[in-house]
Amino acid sequence: MTATSDLGAPQLASPDLLRSAFRRHAAGVAVVTARGETGPVGFTATSLTSVSADPPMLSFSVSAGSSSWPAISGADHVGIHILGEHQRDLAATFARSGADRFAAPTSWREGPKGVPVLDGVLAWLVCRVVSLVPAADNRIVLAEVALGDPTGTGRPLLYHQGRFTALRD
């Protein structure tokens, strides 16, 4: 095996290495919602993953230090919302710490199981929380899909190089 000149110098594992590598990974953008004791909560997630088709199950991660974590950790059900490229502002609102995420102009309603459902998304799912798995300073939430609506129109919103973006043809 010969060395190639296009390999850069490897870096030791660090938070910066992981962040730098994942900035190069385009991810779909979702908003996770739940009903909290004092009202609805939600956050922007790029960690949404399909786990199983039968039974239909997904996962996402959430920081155990986030303002949404207490509600998520106590929720029986959560809402998953796949955002469209027309929803950059909504994604930014739900990503911003301290924002009143459910105030105008956010359009939402109480959905099945009391889960807040956002309007105008490409797809939404209401999922039953199955398991909370500790993972460093985060928790991985495993949730089984109960019902939803995948009929929204538009193209998906992506997160890449530290910003929200759209697909290019």
UniProtKB/TrEMBL annotation:
Record's keyword annotation contains Oxidoreductase: yes
Coiled coil: none
UniProt key word Acyltransferase: no
Single annotated GO MF: oxidoreductase activity
InterPro entries assigned to the protein according to its UniProt record, in alphabetical order: Flavin_Rdtase-like_dom, NADH-dep_flavin_reductase, Split_barrel_FMN-bd
Enzyme Commission number(s) of this protein: 1.-.-.-
Flavin reductase like domain ranges (all copies): 22-166
Keyword entries, A-Z: Oxidoreductase
Name this polypeptide is given: Flavin reductase family protein
Upper taxonomic lineage: Bacteria, Bacillati, Actinomycetota, Actinomycetes, Kitasatosporales
